[in-house]
Write a structure and sequence with these properties.
This protein is an all-alpha fold and 81 residues long. It has 4 helices and no strands.
Length: 81
């Protein structure tokens, strides 16, 4: 895992305050809640169908949605680094 993280030029930065950790946790909590609501709305009843919903959510999150904290699309943010 360490090698793959280095390939992405990612450094570990530890959150030293609850506020800093919240900036990371909040979007992931939103995604989890949104995923559940989407599955209910679309009557998803199998793991395979839920995986398709998750794949679409991940694609939108990485390539279309503007992040609430950075005000950028995630992949655009990664390309800058």
């Amino acid at each position: 895992m360490e090698t793959s993280i280095k390939r992405l030029w990612v450094k570990v930065i530890y959150a030293l305050s609850p506020q800093a950790k919240g900036k990371i946790e909040r979007p992931y909590g939103w995604i989890q809640d949104h995923l559940v609501r989407t599955c209910v709305r679309e009557n998803v009843t199998t793991i395979q169908a839920a995986r398709k919903v998750l794949a679409e959510e991940m694609r939108q999150y990485n390539y279309q949605r503007v992040h609430s904290t950075t005000a950028e699309i995630r992949m655009c943010d990664f390309k800058k680094r």
